Amino acid sequence: RWLRARNFDLQKSEDMLRKHMEFRKQQDLDNILSWKPSEVIQLYDSGGLSGYDYEGCPVWFDIIGTLDPKGLLLSASKQELIRKRIRVCELLLRECELQSQK
Length: 102
Known about the structure:
Elements: H1 2-5, H2 10-26, H3 39-44, E1 48-52, E2 58-61, H4 69-75, H5 78-101
Antiparallel strand pairs: 1-2
Domain CRAL-TRIO: 47-98
Organism: Neovison vison (American mink)
């Protein structure tokens, strides 16, 4: 993945991979699925896993029409909102891995 992203330049690919690993370590992404967002985010941030499509892929939805972004930003930190989105990505990756084992 990193080699393709950097046109097979080994040094740039290695740098990118190291930055990726450092980011995962800084954000504690190996344990992010056990992290629970604050009550405000749980109540007012939209989205959820609605099921799986006919091929078994997870289907995630985000209802943005009723979302109050200003209210969320005033009630929770930007970092916590970003962490919530990263958690969603990790959750979906895990779901894809589980589905591919079936």
